[in-house]
Amino acid sequence: MRVLMVGAGGVGDAAARIAVERDFFEAWVVADYDPERAERTAAAARGRRTGEERFSAAQVDASDADAVAALAREVRATHVFNAVDPRFVMPIFTGALAADAHYLDMAMSLSVRHPDAPYEQVGVKLGDEQFARAGEWEAAGRLALLGIGVEPGLSDVFARYAADELFDHIDELGTRDGANLVIRDDDGNEVFAPGFSMWTIIEECLNPPVVWERERGGGDLEKGFFTLPPFSEPEVFDFPDGIGPVECVHVEHEEVLLMPRWVEADRVTFKYGLGEEMITILKTLHTLGLDSTEPVTVKGVQVSPRDVVAACLPDPATIGPRMEGKTCAGLWVTGTGKDGAPRSTYLYHVVDNADSMRDYGAQCVVWQTAINPVVALELLANGTWSGSGVLGPEALPPKPFLDLLAAPKPEGYGSPWGMEEK
């Protein structure tokens, strides 16, 4: 396996630090628009293992499908791993296919909705552009594995596992994400600094969240997607491992678009513990038009307001030393268990920032996202996972993934997941 990873931000950097411990690949090329950043990530990976020579760096414009394809051919990539913002999904996805390579990402192609449409109207959904090209990937005998980060990703593996091993009937697959993280300045005061890309946070939190329900509207629809206003239906969810109660709200997310394709359930939702401060900031950005991606002219320079907001905040890759606490990603499944009795189970994965910083020099939010595509690449390399076309994690066997993730090193990745009855 020869991996071309596009993106040397926080997640890409963490993925390289995780991957260097494994032997399933022969080459890992780190590519970024900024060649110096790509070389820093490649050098950091090489420095973690004596005699390591598999990591190299390259420059690429992720917005240019032809450039991605040309680099993939040049480095003889068998797999293109997309580790950049979702706005670059389609060029990288297209470039990988053109180069006859397999493809993985952690976020799907963006949704498009008419600004004057009623909230019930969905429009172009997350991933629609990619699934529309599934036939091309299948005809080429190549796999595009979508949404294989943590959320989406591990949460989707949990969905398949719950359906296979725990439940006879699923009422709801409810992804629930929460944390007790704080970031402090040099004086110990709490400061605002998102744990991952602010560009992506704005995109998914201010878009109308999608919900999937079977027989919505009194049974007149066999199944259906619909949207709600942002931050709808707040609920307090009690997260494990000392995180405790966190208020969660609906957010647009890939799980809702992926899970119903392969897992039988009556309802699929995603709720995120944003917190009052983040919600207030997002609402203010929207009111001021600072969430817009349309360029405006400032003193003769064209600039996107959202890009300015993201540039003004700390790079998520750099805030680890000032971060404290844990983050939890998981799936709350309700329904009827294999024994025929009602069941309510939360499958989850918790990462303590102190642990990820100590072991990998990566803050916990990006590290938790990065470990899952590396596990997936290993399963693809050894043939445990395989396929062609455009697939989500739910389409593949869950137990090998969960076993490899949790198994102690060096056999596995030493990152156990948990299960709690609610």
Automatic annotation (TrEMBL):
Membrane-spanning parts: none
Keyword Nucleotide-binding among UniProt keywords: yes
InterPro entries with a match to the protein in the record: NAD(P)-bd_dom_sf, Sacchrp_dh-like_C, Sacchrp_dh_NADP-bd
Sequence ranges assigned to domain Saccharopine dehydrogenase NADP binding in this UniProt record: 3-144
Signal peptide positions (record): none
Residue ranges annotated for the Saccharopine dehydrogenase-like C-terminal domain, each copy included: 149-406
Keywords assigned: ATP-binding, Nucleotide-binding
GO molecular function, one term: ATP binding
Domain of life of the organism encoding this protein: Bacteria
Gene3D superfamilies, alphabetized: Dihydrodipicolinate Reductase, domain 2, NAD(P)-binding Rossmann-like Domain
Keyword ATP-binding part of the UniProt annotation: yes
Protein name: ATP-binding protein
Source organism (scientific name): Nocardioides zhouii
